[in-house]
Amino acid sequence: MRLGARRLATWLAVTALWAAGCIVAQPPAEPRYFTPGPGLAADPDPPRSADAPILRVRRVRAAPYLRDRMVWRRGVEIGFYDLWRWTETPARFAQSWLDDELYERRGFRRSTSPLAPTLDANLEEFDELLTPAHEAAVALGVVLTDPKLGTLLDRTIEVRRPIASDDPKAVADALGNALAAAAQQVGDAVAAALEARPL
Predict the structure, then answer these.
(1) In Å, how far are 1, 59, 128, 146, 147 from 117, measured between CA atoms?
(2) Which residues are registered as beta bridge partners of 121?
(3) What is the DSSP string of 101-138?
(4) Which of 42, 74, 154, 191 is the most buried (most CB within 10 A)?
(5) Cβ-contact 35, 87 below 8 angstroms
(6) pLDDT in tens, 133-179
(7) 101 exposed, middle or buried (CB, 10 Å; 0-12, 13-18, 19+)?
(8) What is the rounded distance in angstroms from the CA atom of residue 198 to the CA atom of residue 102?
(9) Percent of the chain surpassing pLDDT 70
(10) Taking phi first (over 0 means left), then psi (-120 to 50 degrees means alpha), and beta for anything else, what does residue 130 get?
């Protein structure tokens, strides 16, 4: 009986060590990278006109916490997913969406001149809200100035979109849709402000 008990104890010890070795030998989890999308499709033939307003869009800035890791927010608490990351910074996504909206969809003429009306944008939120509803939250603060007329527009545009599930792809899609809607509202506001300028 003792020999059988020893063999059993030895077998159990070897099995435990082998199992522990297998667990330790597993590779660490790898980060997953996402792009917000799909947003709004560009018009196939955006309107082009030689007398369309010129517009300079400066580089979009973002709140300091908006970097490569995806962000969740619960009330005043902000956290980061260790393994869910963006392929680019949220500020770069906002820049791309705004450029597409203003220059491709709206047909504004691109300018780098300091004498042109200038849009400054700051991405204040690009978060997954966990409570009270599971939503994507995007907030874009925009200021449009004219060198002769001063400030033409100064507002923050906030957009919320529901998130269908806890899957990070659903989060990325909802944030992309919210960002596209915010860019569209910026386009509306900029167009109205430029059109209302006194001649």
Answers:
(1) 93, 14, 33, 4, 7
(2) 142
(3) IIIIIS-PEE---TTS-EEEEEEEEEEEEEESS-EEEE
(4) 191
(5) yes
(6) 999 999 999 999 999 999 999 999 999 999 999 999 999 999 999 99
(7) buried
(8) 21
(9) 80
(10) alpha
Which tokens hold the place of 177? 């849709």
Question: In 3-state terms, the chain is what percent helix, strand and coil (to 5)?
Answer: 35, 35, 35
Q: Is the dihedral of CA 87, 92, 98, 100 positive or negative?
A: negative
What are the backbone dihedrals phi and psi of residue 27, each rounded to the nearest 5 degrees, phi first? -70, 150
Q: How far is it, in rounded angstroms, from Cα 166 to Cα 71? A: 13
pLDDT at 50: 72
Report pLDDT digits (tens) over 66-125. Answer: 999 999 999 999 999 999 999 999 999 999 999 999 999 999 999 999 999 999 999 999
Burial category of 193 from C-beta neighbours within 10 Å (exposed 0-12, middle 13-18, buried 19 and up): buried
Radius of gyration over every alpha carbon of the chain, rounded to an integer in angstroms: 25
pLDDT number for residue 41: 54
DSSP line for 135-151: EEEEEEEEEEEETTTEE
Residue 58 contacts residue 120 (beta carbons within 8 Å): yes
Sign of CA dihedral 99, 65, 160, 142: negative
Question: Looking up tokens 């989060």, which residue turns up?
Answer: 171
